[in-house]
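Subgroup meeting minutes
Present: P.N., E.W., G.H.
Scribe: E.W.

1. P.N. recapped why we're keeping a running log of single-chain structure predictions: easier to compare across weeks, and new members can see raw inputs and outputs side by side.
2. G.H. added today's entry (260 aa).
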Amino acid sequence: MPGLPIDPPAATQAKSKTGLLVSVRSMAELATIADLGVDVIDFKEPRLGPLAAADPAIWASAAESVSLEQELSAALGECDQAIGLASQVPARFNYAKAGPAGVESTERLAGYWRQLRQRLPESVELVAVAYADHDIANCPDPESIFATAEACGIKTWLLDTFGKAADQGVVHRIGPERFRSLRVMADQAGARWVLAGSIRINEAIGLASHRMMPDLYGVRGDVCDASRDGNVEAEKVSRWLELVRSFTHDHHHRDNRDCS
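Output recorded in log:
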């Protein structure tokens, strides 16, 4: 894409492995994948929305039972629901993510994140979520959200979809050049970039063929027995893990970056 600094002159370049985030809804699903080596285990209730929260009692159980080496994440829902739940996220968790649906401006978004961070335990990192189908979600576009995240010092970015129709996944919404632009944007900000949104394993293979890999893939529907409302299957998770372990991507670390 013209004008994109794919290899910024003031950067050092390193090879990074791509990881895998898997969303589960219950302790039973957690047990299914607990020993597979998933990088991040995320908790949400897919039947209630794209980032709907699982029962906070499940968060508490996971916090007490999962090895400290395992990274954990909680989906909080959208807006008011997320603000109401943020204080219940266990300090043991690594991440919390809240959807921007209905937040119509970046100014409001920054205020929304500020409220969430005030309520979350200090040890829990807030994830900036952008929806590829932002027009449906009535929120700013991914580029505007991630630019705001950089300004607010949020260092983990998730690109997802608000709608979950099979033919409206993130790959259908975001073309190759835009993927590449977002990858460079994350690298220049020193951010960890997570790609989700009804993504299928063959689509991840296709992106890799164009040398476009996120830091983490986030999956749910493609590792379930039927749809995202079904049950997570260990065999499908293992297939994804085998795939992402084969990926490396160029990660740019800018020297003397101002991270304030």
